[in-house]
Specification:
single chain, 136 residues, alpha+beta, Glutaredoxin, 5-stranded mixed β-sheet, 2 helices, 5 strands
Length: 136
C-alpha cells in the first residue's frame, strides 16, 4: 500500500466509500453516502469564506463501516477525531465545518462541549492523540 501526499494543515478527511446508511449503499444514481458527503462538504466550504482554511480530502474506508457517514478531523499537534452516524446533508456538513473552526482555534484540539454545534453532538467515535504524544 502506498499513501498519497496531502497538505498537513487543518483537514477533514471524508470516507468516500461509506454507505448512505447501514441499510442503503447509495442514492438512485449509484453514488455512495461518503462520496456524496465529501462533495457536499466541499460545496458548503466553498460557499462561506469562514471555512476557507479547511482542506476537504477524501479516501476509501475509515473503518467506521457500522457508523456511516464518517469523517476524520485532524491538524498537526492536536487530537484528531473520527465522527460518524451522519446523514449526508447540508446541516451535518455545516455542523462539522463549524466544529472544525472551533477545533482550529483550540490549543490541543479540545473544544469545550458547551461550544459544540448541536449537529456534532453524539457523532464522535474516536479521539486520537497527535503523533508522538499521549496524555499523562
Amino acid at each position: 500500500m502506498s499513501f498519497k501526499p496531502v497538505g498537513s494543515g487543518l483537514s477533514i478527511v471524508a470516507c468516500n466509500t461509506c454507505r448512505l446508511s447501514p441499510e442503503q449503499r447509495g442514492d438512485g444514481d449509484g453514488r455512495g453516502g461518503g462520496a456524496l458527503f465529501g462533495e457536499l462538504l466541499r460545496s458548503v466550504r466553498d460557499s462561506d469564506p469562514r471555512y476557507r482554511g479547511i482542506d476537504i480530502q477524501a479516501m476509501p474506508c475509515l473503518f467506521a463501516c457500522g457508523e456511516p457517514v464518517a469523517v476524520h478531523l485532524r491538524s498537526p499537534g492536536k487530537f484528531s477525531y473520527v465522527l460518524g452516524r451522519f446523514d449526508p446533508d447540508e446541516t451535518a456538513a455545516r455542523a462539522i465545518l463549524d466544529y472544525a473552526l472551533l477545533y482550529a482555534d483550540s490549543d490541543a484540539g479540545s473544544v469545550r462541549y458547551a461550544e459544540w454545534p448541536q449537529g456534532v453532538k453524539g457523532h464522535f467515535l474516536t479521539r486520537s492523540p497527535p503523533e508522538g504524544h499521549i496524555l499523562p
